[in-house]
Amino acid sequence: MKSTSRFLMLVCLFSFLSCKNSRPEKEIKKEDNELLSNDFEYTNELIAETSPYLLQHAHNPVNWKPWSDKAFTLAKEKNSLILLSIGYSTCHWCHVMEEESFEDIEVAQMMNDNFISIKVDREERPDVDIVYQTALELVQESGGWPLNAILLPNGKPVYLGTYHDKETWKSIISKFSLEYKNNPEKMEEYAKLLTSGIQDVYSGSVGSNEAFTDTNTIHEGISKWSKQWDSDWGGDVGGQKFINPSKLNFLLNYAFLSKDMKAKDHLRKTLDAILLGGIHDHLGGGFFRYSTDGQWKIPHFEKMLYDNAQILSLYAKAYRAFKDPKYLKALETTLNFIERDMKGDQGGYISALDADTNGVEGAFYVWEEEELRFQLGDDFDLFSRFYSIQKEEEWENGKYILVKRSADKEFSNAHSISESELMEYSEKWKEILLKARQTRVEPKKDDKIITSWNAILIDGFIEAYKATSKETYLTKARSTFQFLLNHNYKNEQLVHSYKEGSKQKEVFLEDYAFMAKTALNLYESTFELDYLELAKKFNNTALEKFSDESGFFSFNEKNELIAKIISTADGVLPSANAIMAHNLLKLGHLDYNQQFLNSSRKMISSMITSIVEEVQNYGQWGSLMLTETYPYFEIVVVGPNARKISVELNTYFIPNALIVGSEVPNESPLFQGRFLNNETYIYICQNRTCKLPVQTIEEALVQLSELGSYGWTQKRGLLPF
């Protein structure tokens, strides 16, 4: 208690310091920069990097350095504070702060005189980002980007914040540089306490093993979460809304297994509201990162690969579950967007599209009424009602975001027009406005090919293939996976990101975990053993590189940062630890590997308290816990028509099931003794015990129902929602 109080007092002290005014410093001189360029007045060490974000700052007058041992050694030699700034290329407020402060000569002089300044692309170094985001959340209870931190030469933080305007930023750096000269011991004491707090966060992220009880555990978690559900607009109540596919995937699985109508209704309300809102790009397809309001209307306009990849999977699963045509359309338009706007020149998929165009957020996507009238002519009146182009819906400065306020069927009925006619109009409008939009300056792209994000996209392609049986989607999955093997995998070692000329060697748990999961999904869809062998290889490498004595896995291989990171909660990506538990579960069932099954079960049991208290933040773990509290099935299809039957079987939504097959005899434990008389059979198994084989999908669904797959009825083979 004493140390906590002292920590809070120090927080108050340094917060106070950061708010005072500062006096101007002397002007910067061009000679202060070590590196010069013939084409720019200033050039710093970031010019040698390949990250688009770092290159954006390569001609700031600030003497930026990349994150490196060299930079920290220099700080120690000079006994200088480090100014760490973390962001990413499509971050709107990162651009604003650069323009206001980092391109300003006076501010740059202050930074160069008093700090070793380091720039980090959070997408290249998520480990660095997560450590200092944790510190920021301890101090301010929220995080964000740009993250700006002042560190001691040993990397321990003494100040953390996000965006600051120029005058505030000058005040902060002036006061902290002065404080370090006058009271270094006090700063070191504060840094020690804050670093200890970071370490406590991660040491406490893994709970003790708890015994599995029954479905009441999951029901309790859902009950607590449901108090936050927005009954009007879907999602959770709040001033901003993120789609968060991990928790919606969990809710879909839960609703099917539990027959919880309230959960199903909330899920569908959320999925439908997202499609109607401005967070959905109605013209170009795909989804923006989040909405800045509670109605999914006003987006933050950047488009991230990881969001769209996960949302693709989400709507593909939702279509399998509910057979709603609008979910199929969402799947198709998202795929079209990704292929058109995010595919790299060499293959692989880039990381992001900027929110800004020429410094104006959303300029590429929004419309003025006059422009719409000119483009659409006589159609404007109907269009304006369909997409809410009314004065009360105006965003700002006469600009409109395309938003629907009713589903197509409701709109058709209200305006005496058939749905087919409305669809024709909609496609016509889309063609006209997309053509007009393409004449605008397009947002900049971050063309890094990030391993984990591309692996998640491959899973999206596979889910689209399962939902539609279209081989083109499986072909995309195969080719993207091969691209990653060719470019992001050298000497049997993955790297986190690829860009031509990049020297990055860092790799993280998420890369191996997601690649192993993706390889397993490819194996399940193709029956090709090479994918299974790669899944095992990636999984084994993860076990070797990242295993921790806690039974979980560390974020990075080297513990060179100020705290060891064992992250269990979902973030913008599903928890990599949960993905590892998922992979161990599947491999355990495939190979009858009891050690893997025990490890997975132990990890899940350690998360029970977190799942009950905050399942919305642990959606991937929630889905895993469903495998322990509801029946889990091994569905094995063997024989000459196994692939055809497997493809059709995958069009059904069957949670809590591993579906694998083989057209030829296979020595894997799950297949031994299954091949009979050159016929095709389906085996429904639980815990290595199978029902008598059947030859039709209808018979298999009946067996699933008899074994307690609560999502199925014997009469219809469909969820009774």
TrEMBL record:
Residues 43-196 form the Spermatogenesis-associated protein 20-like TRX domain. PROSITE patterns: PROKAR_LIPOPROTEIN. Pfam families: Thioredox_DsbH. It comes from the Bacteria. InterPro entries: 6-hairpin_glycosidase_sf (IPR008928), 6hp_glycosidase-like_sf (IPR012341), Ssp411 (IPR024705), Ssp411-like_TRX (IPR004879), Thioredoxin-like_sf (IPR036249). GO terms for biological process: carbohydrate metabolic process. This is Thioredoxin domain-containing protein. It comes from Maribacter algicola.
